Amino acid sequence: MPEVVKRCVQFASIEGWTEPEEIDHELKVWPDQFVGLSSGDKKHEYRYNDRDFKIDDLVLLREFELPGDRYLGGQVLARITWISYGPEWGITDGFCAFSIRGYFGGWRFES
User: Fold this and answer.
1) Sign of CA dihedral 63, 65, 110, 19
2) d(CA 89, CA 95)
3) What is the pLDDT along the chain (111 residues), one digit of tens a residue?
4) Residues 78, 61 contacting (CB under 8 angstroms)
5) Which of 48, 51, 90, 100 has the fewest other C-beta atoms within 10 Å?
6) Is 27:45 a contact under the CB 8 Å cutoff?
7) What secondary structure does DSSP assign to 37-87, as a single string?
8) How far is CA 40 from CA 22, 35, 57, 59, 92, in A?
9) Pick the CATH number of 22-108 from 3.30.70.330, 2.40.320.10, 1.10.8.100, 2.30.130.30
10) Could you give the CA distance from residue 66 to residue 61 in angstroms, rounded to a whole number?
11) How does strand 25-29 pair with strand 58-65?
């Protein structure tokens, strides 16, 4: 597991978990979308479901810039609390929309 994920899990355990857990998915998020995630205003994600997302999965959302192909350092740790799969509810087949609850707001690790 990458060091950043280990540190994230250790910090998250302070937020109410009785023991550290494995992160199920690490996802790239564009900077404009990350602003809403890190403030707690954005509580959902719409994704291609190539990872078999499920309720209770733990996701690490990492701020990522495509020009330059690099991580910017912002991260949010969250739990999937609800999920809807396409083609139901107007969601494109093969995609899903899931609700998340963050364990803490946006924070940054220095590279």
Assistant:
1) positive
2) 11
3) 444 444 444 444 444 444 446 889 999 999 999 999 888 889 999 999 999 999 999 998 999 998 889 999 888 888 999 999 999 999 999 999 999 987 654 444 333
4) yes
5) 90
6) yes
7) HHHT---EEEEE-SS---TT-EEEEEEEETTTTEEEEEEEEEEEEEEEETT
8) 22, 9, 18, 15, 26
9) 2.30.130.30
10) 15
11) parallel
Task: Find out whether the peptide bond into 20 is cis, omega within 30 degrees of 0.
Answer: no
What is the rounded CA–CA span in Å between residue 27 and residue 76?
10
| Residue 100 contacts residue 59 (beta carbons within 8 Å) | yes
Give the start-to-end residue ranges of the domains of the chain.
22-108
Strand, coil or helix: 108: strand
Indicate the helix (H) or strand (E) that contains 33.
helix 31-39
Specify whether the CB–CB gap between 9 and 17 falls below 8 A.
no
Closest residue by Cα to residue 45 from 57, 9, 3, 1: 57
